[in-house]
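ARCHIVE CARD
SHELF: 3
SLOT: left
DATA:
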Amino acid sequence: MSEFHDPELERLLGRAGGMYPDVNVAYERMLRGVRHARRRRLVAVSGAASCLLFLGAAFAFIGSDQSPNVQPGDRGTFDGSFEDTLPDSVPGTTTPTSTDSTLDTETTATRSGTVVPVTTPNSSAGSNPSVNPSSTTPTTAPAPPVTQVFAGTGGSVTVRLQDGTLSLVSYSATAGFTADLKHTGGDRVEVRFESVDHRTDIRIDLELGSMAPTIDENDT
C-alpha cells in the first residue's frame, strides 16, 4: 500500500494541519509521522524474524538429540566356497546337440526357447570352386629361332639359335680356301677356312642366350 494513502497518516496529517493548514508545515509533520511509522514497522518485522530464528534453532537442537545412534553391523565371514544356486535345467531353453557335418540345416536354441534354423553350406556339394582355364597364369612362349650369317676373308657360316642351342646351318669357303669344321652345335659353332698363305677362324659362342661371334684373320 502507498504511504500517502495510509489512513493513519491521513488522519495525522489532518490533525496537524488544523482548519487552515500550511502546506510546508503539514508536509514536515507528515514526514515525521512517516518516519515514526517506518521505525515501528521495522521493529515489528525484526522482532518477528528473531523469534522465528530462535524457534528454528530450538527445534533443530531438539531433533538432533532425539536422532537414533547407528551402530555398525557385524562383518560377514566367507568360508571360501560357493554353492551352486542355479537349477539343473532352465525351462524354456533348448540345449543344442551335435549334428552331422553333411546336413544342410542345423538348429540352434535362443534364450527365449525358440528354435531358429541356421543354413550352412553343404560340404558334400564340393567346396572347391571350379578353376577357370582363362584365369591361370599364362606361360612364356619360347623365343622364335634366330639365324645369322658371319663372314670373313676365308668364307662365311650361317648359324641358328633356337631353344637355347646353337646349330650350324651352312658354310661357304672362298675360292682357294678349304673348310675345317671344329664345332657344329651346342653352345659353340667354329669353322676354320685355310689357304696356302692365310687362315680365317670364325667362332660363335652362346653367352646369356645370345650369339657372340669371334673372327680371327691370320697369315700363314
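SLOT: right
DATA:
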Amino acid sequence: MSASKKEKEPIHDVDMDHHPSETS
C-alpha cells in the first residue's frame, strides 16, 4: 500500500515519516 501512496504523491514521502500511523 505504501508504494501506491508514494506513486500517487511522492511529496508525501516526508509526511509518511512524520505520520507513521498513517502507514499502518
